[in-house]
Design goal:
CATH topology of the largest domain: TATA-Binding Protein
CATH architecture of the largest domain: 2-Layer Sandwich
Strand content: 15-25%
Helix content: 40-55%
CATH class of the largest domain: Alpha Beta
Distance between the termini: 24 Å
Transmembrane segments: 87-108, 120-139
Strand order of the largest sheet: 1-5-4-3-2
Order of helices and strands: EHEEEEHHH
Keywords: Membrane, Transmembrane, Transmembrane helix
Number of strands: 5
Largest sheet: 5 strands, antiparallel
Number of domains: 2
Shape: elongated
Number of helices: 4
Radius of gyration: 22 Å
Protein name: GTP-binding protein
CATH superfamily of the largest domain: Kinase associated domain 1, KA1
């Protein structure tokens, strides 16, 4: 599971499997009963694998799998690592807030410039928004880096479940 691209905050992968998707979905459904390390939930063709609440922290990742049939004897597994959806939504809200404030301060600076008023404060605030955006990006990168071991555990668990299928 290569995660060498540092720009991607939510790593993705895709695996083609020569089995029907329902077989794999049932394996993940059955894994709920045979282990207690992870919480596995299934909704239609989607499987969510995450850590129990007592093992989670702010940046704890979860693995979202979407298993789609390509034909009657094969399927494609799409995987996406990411933080808790609530954390991700909050994180994206902060990004959009910073972008909106940057645009608002830019409009304010332009207006003051056209009115031949001082606009140094507005430009300073725009620069501050850029600094905050870099801080948010850095925080996301640090969160991802601190979760690499957990991502590897989730990926290994997924591989163990898929290997059970190949043994049958």
């Amino acid at each position: 599971m290569p995660t060498t691209n540092d720009i991607i905050l939510r790593p993705r992968f895709k695996i083609e499997i020569p089995r029907p998707n329902e077989t794999l979905l049932q394996l993940f459904q059955d894994s709920k009963k045979t282990q207690s390390e992870f919480i596995v939930s299934r909704i239609d063709d989607h499987v969510f694998i995450k850590f129990p609440k007592d093992k989670q922290h702010f940046w704890s990742p979860q693995l979202h799998l979407e298993i789609n049939n390509t034909d009657e004897n094969s399927c494609v597994l799409h995987g996406l690592f990411g933080p808790n959806p609530t954390v991700w939504t909050f994180f994206m809200f902060l990004h959009f807030l910073v972008a909106g404030l940057f645009i608002a301060f830019g409009i304010w600076a332009y207006t003051n410039w056209r009115l031949k008023s001082d606009y140094a404060i507005q430009l300073s605030l725009m620069l501050f928004m850029v600094v905050i955006w870099f801080a948010l990006y850095l925080a996301g990168s640090i969160g991802k880096a601190s979760s690499k071991n957990e991502m590897q555990q989730l990926h290994n668990f997924m591989n163990e479940v898929l290997e059970k299928e190949s043994l049958n």
